[in-house]
Amino acid sequence: MRSNSISEIANALRKGDDFLLTTHVHPDGDGIGAETALALGLKQLKKTVMVVNSDPIPSNYCFLPLEGLFRDRVPKHAYFSCAVALECSEPERLGKLQETFRGIETIINIDHHPGNTWFGDYNYVRTEACAVGEQVYDILKTMKVRIDPGMAACIYTSILTDTGSFSYSNTTWRTHEIVEDLIKLGANPTDIYQAVYESNSPGKIQLLGEILSTLSFSPDKRVAWVTMTRKAFKDTHTSYEDAEGMINYARSIKTVDIAISFTELNSGKVKVSFRSKTHEQDVNKLAALFNGGGHTRASGCVIDDTLENTKKQVLERVLLFMKKSVK
Ligand SMILES: [Mn+2]
After folding, report:
1. Res 245 pLDDT > 90
2. How far, in Å, from the CA of 27 to the mean position of ligand 1?
3. Domains and CATH numbers, the chain
């Protein structure tokens, strides 16, 4: 399968009239920034647009110009000629929206994950894009949309969050070239950084304390893991979204090559996230052992077992994996 060209995607978007946009379950900064920027761009082109996500938007992204675009769920008799999935590597990532997508004639799949399953009628998959927000920027430019300050803030947020504030290896000259343009177009780096990273609730920082107190290591200290129990969320009045990024504290330790977080979900299943420091430790392969996926340096899976059993089986496999990866 080949990715459609950017002009083919632009043409498909021009042809559509009634759009449904979404991103993956538990939406992150990239997905929210990308869907909002694209929705505003399509509105400028006089299209009818609705954005519906499977899960709520974390409060630190509510400063974005979301108003009038989002609905909590798809209205019963709503009609859409075209649906766009942003940052979804496979239909399962659509969550509650999966059913609605089945009934829509044209599906456009825009993503940068290497494991994308090409489920769209049109697929724009570019693994070299640092964020889906970068892909949306290119699409809007191709469609000659005027990027206003609100849209610039959305795309900036996508790129800021998906590059770890311009620190991950997906940060390139092109990232900075786009960001230069976004700042010229009205995105404010200080305001956006403060809204995204310095607007924490007291409970979120208490949750961080709870999570860090569970930090554990392999004997050689190359693997570190944290555990997030349902009790920790309950005690601090926080939710799953508040734990986003906390795994990075484990990865930030000098000796650590692979960081893992185990999160007890409300469903009783356990979400396992993997982060690695270098491309030499391909955690996408690790997640694939448990029917998950993602990127080389960030991946995850969900395991239907108790927290204790999940930790035991995952840690056993990870330690084996580390042995194999020693040259
Ligand atoms: Mn992304």
Report:
1. no
2. 10
3. 6-197 (3.90.1640.10), 202-325 (3.10.310.30)
